[in-house]
Design goal:
229 residues; alpha/beta; 6-stranded mixed sheet; 7 helices
Length: 229
């Protein structure tokens, strides 16, 4: 339909269950091109499960995740993903710049000089220039989070999925993180889960609550607070 042409990700009656326990129940959502969706909800409510289903890292029990481009269904979309830090094995022998560069693995054909410059620029963007050769096992939690942010954004994806991006980030870098996200939102569709919603809500264009089911907030007062009644 014409009115749906700008929808690039659609959750069509999505349900996910583990071991007989329903985590997400009949979720439907259309993500429009240019949306900035802030996602909140209680611990265990299914926020990360929904993101993993959107990324097709987790198969739904029922329903579908549909990607679209120019109104037509497609198999893939260029998506950058910042997972929660506890999903990463920091013992893996890889450096900061190698982590960041891994975000370009699907960007085949990029000239070597351009690739090198892109990595250096991205490492600088996330404030880790002095740690570019450091193994990730030597980083603090916040520094690792910043390296993973660099990996998520280096390919300049059209969709960016951020799961608790402020976790472990110190207050000094937190404000820079807001600036990075605000700049990306000008040309990137963003889905962001965070408990720290005061500043994020001011940038977001939509706010949804996930607690097994989905509720979208429309009141600006609710949008800026807990989205409750």
């Amino acid at each position: 339909m014409e009115e749906d042409r700008n929808v690039i990700i659609e959750l069509d009656h999505l349900s996910v269950a583990y071991d007989g326990k329903v985590i997400l129940d009949d979720i439907s959502l259309g993500v429009g091109e240019g949306d900035f969706i802030a996602i909140t909800g209680p611990n265990g409510g299914g926020k990360t499960t929904m993101l993993r289903a959107i990324l097709r890292l987790l198969p739904p029990t029922r329903g579908r995740v549909i990607y679209r481009r120019d109104g037509m269904e497609v198999k893939t979309l260029p998506i950058g993903y910042l997972p929660q830090k506890n999903m990463i094995d920091s013992r893996f022998p890889i450096s900061v710049e190698e982590v960041v560069a891994s975000g370009l693995l699907s960007s085949g054909g990029m000239p070597k000089d351009e690739r090198k410059a892109r990595v250096a620029d991205t490492v600088e963007l996330v404030g880790l220039t002095g740690y570019s050769r450091a193994p990730i096992g030597s980083l603090s939690g916040g520094q690792l989070q910043r390296a993973l942010l660099g990996r998520a954004v280096i390919s300049r994806p059209s969709v960016l999925v951020l799961d608790e991006p402020l976790s472990y980030i110190d207050k000094r870098f937190e404000h820079h993180m807001y600036d990075i996200v605000a700049d990306l939102s000008r040309h990137t569709t963003i889905l962001l889960v965070s408990h720290e919603m005061t500043a994020i809500a001011g940038m977001a264009t939509r706010h949804i609550i996930i607690d097994r089911s989905l509720h979208e907030c429309h009141s600006r007062h609710h949008f800026m607070t807990s989205c409750g009644e």
